[in-house]
Amino acid sequence: MRAAKLSAVALAIPLFVLAASASAAGCIKGAVAGGVAGHYAGHHAVIGAVGGCVVGHHLAKKHAQEQTAAKAQAVQQQPQPSSVQ
Fold first, then answer.
1. Lowest mean pLDDT, pick from 4-8, 32-36, 59-63
2. Cα→Cα distances 16→11, 43, 49, 73, Å
3. In angstroms, rounded to a whole number, what is the distance separating the alpha carbons of residues 70 and 48?
4. CA nearest 29: which of 71, 63, 4, 67?
5. Residue 17 located in a structural domain
6. Which residues make Cβ contacts (< 8 Å) with residue 59, sequence separation at least 6?
7. Structural domain count of the chain
8. According to the UniProt record, where is the region Disordered (predicted)?
9. 52-83 residue pLDDT tens
10. Considering the domain boundaries, does residue 70 fall inside one?
11. What is the DSSP letter of 13?
12. Does some domain include residue 2?
């Protein structure tokens, strides 16, 4: 049991280093939440972490698109300064 935990930690460290350098917004938060949920739902932490990463990335991307659309709409709705002659 101790060897399994040690090997899991040894495999997780490089993954966190690689994930930190990647630009996958939301993946780390989702992976942590999914890993914890998967662990408590029958010791499926890795499957939960993968699923959480996918869902977290999707939600972060969706949120970023909504923010971009809201900013574009706000710019369009601003009154344009009229030139006075």
1. 4-8
2. 9, 20, 12, 37
3. 32
4. 63
5. no
6. 26, 30
7. 1
8. 66-85
9. 999 999 999 999 999 999 998 888 887 766 66
10. no
11. H
12. no
